[in-house]
Amino acid sequence: MIDVILPQLGESVSEGTISKWLVREGEVVKKDQTLASIATDKADSDLPSPAGGRVSKLLAAEGDVVAVKTVIARIDESVQTPAANLSPPAAPPAAPPLAPAIAAPSPPAAPPAPVPAQASPRSAASALATPTVRKAALENDVDLERVQGTGERGRVTRDDVMRAANPPAASPAPPVSTRASTPPPAPPPAIERPQTRATPQTQQIAQMINTGGGFVPPIPGVGFGQFKVPAYRPAEGDKVIPFTRRRRITADHMTYSKFASPHVVTVAEVDVHHASRLRNAHKDRYKAEGMSLTMLAFAVVATAKALRENPQMNTRVLDDSYVVLGSVNVGVAVDSPDGLVVPVVRRADELGVRGIVRAIDDLAKRARAGKITIDDLSGATFSVSNPGLKGNLFGGAIINQPNVGILRMGEVKKRVVVIESEDGEDHIAIHPVMYMALSYDHRVVDGVAANGFLWRVTEILEKADFEV
Question: Rounded distance, CA 38 to CA 347, Å?
């Protein structure tokens, strides 16, 4: 009997959602045949069969959130009869039974006791529910922030949503208390705050207050201290658009990044006169080969070289230390049908202009076609963001975690500049100029290191000593 295990689908992926089973129990499959579609925080993937044989058991239902390395199906390798000679089951099971390791059995009609805050600490910026659960909440008109999660680390499950949508006829349960049965020592009166909602987020904040646990963060959608977010009141002409899975993930990522990393932004003015002339001289040749020679490619080449020379910008933060990363992998923000994604150009410092152009073109085309993979999105050590043709002067981008910096390009515009001739005389000229803004994590990157890195990127771009 072969166990089908949910693999590690990316360096920071800890779980996946079974989007759809493509096989049924009793069906005979071939090795590498796709068994299921798996949705993760980064992208969707197909799960291939590790061996040929009969699918003896499906241990997770569609919509289940499963931790990596969990057995989700079993295949009887001794059955190798072609599928065409077998009588398939009359109908697929309504919902495959759940393995005990994946989810607990459905509770009785009475709702379970709420999980105390101390038993399930969680980050205030982490996701409280999966995309499938959020969809169920929208379909059943359930406010997730009012649902007490019974899953791991306070996660709201589908059963929690359905109980909230169809409460039992019995008298309502007493209000959820955010304090333990044995109250901790009373906190100083100055930091006590009334609880407005019994969500896992407020539970953690209550725990922090009760134990004197440092900074109390604001609660998204609720407020902070005496400030409360006003309730939305529908008005004629309004259109409510639910978050897609990608938009929810992006929102959670950006919120976490701003909360975790103290952002500092520094800006450089870059005269791209020589780079523009080089691009104009060779862009038609690249176009004939099906590639686009863009200023973004020059910026990525300059960034990769500067990262190799300034390793402090090519790091990531751990709990009480940081790691200087050996590889220079540059993430490039590109648009996709589901929103912005950041695929990775690996070992960018070892590639010339042509290699960078080919890599960016390939990633951008696959992103627009919705064919980007988890591997394409994993492993960036630094990121470059390009606002496109309709850009602006400059902007401070949010750091792509776990990087410690991101470089955002501005719009290239012709400006009046002062240049020095060979005889030392100053002259006024009109050159294409671009502003580049570096956002960096001040926990591990000091101003001297950040400014030195940005100065080097500027120098490389202005000299434009590229082999094209």
Answer: 28
Identify whether 431 is a catalytic site residue. no
Q: Using only the alpha carbons of the chain, give its radius of gyration.
A: 27
Among the listed residues 3, 143, 335, 446, the single catalytic one is 446
State the catalytic residue, choosing from 32, 143, 442, 465: 442
pLDDT of residue 255: 87
Q: In three state form, how does the secondary structure of the chain look?
A: CEEEECCCCCCCCCEEEEEEECCCCCCEECCCCEEEEEECCCCEEEEECCCCEEEEEECCCCCCEEECCCEEEEEECCCCCCHHHCCCCCCCCCCCCCCCCCCCCCCCCCCCCCCCHHHCCCCCCCCCCCHHHHHHHHHCCCCHHHCCCCCHHHCCCHHHHHHHHCCCCCCCCCCCCCCCCCCCCCCCHHHCCCCCCCCHHHHHHHHHHHCCCCCCCCECCCEECCEECCCCCCCCCCCCCCCCHHHHHHHHHHHHHHHHCCEEEEEEEEECHHHHHHHHHHHHHHHHCCCCCCHHHHHHHHHHHHHHHCHHHCEEECCCCEEECCCCCEEECEEECCEEECCEECCHHHCCHHHHHHHHHHHHHHHHCCCCCHHHHCCCCEEEECCCCCCCCCCCCCCCCCCCEEEEECCCEEEEEEEECCCCCEEEEEEEEEEEEEEEECCCCCHHHHHHHHHHHHHHHHHCCCCC
pLDDT at res. 418: 94
Model pLDDT, residue 75:
92
User: What whole-number percentage of the chain has pLDDT above 90?
Assistant: 41
Known catalytic residue: 442?
yes
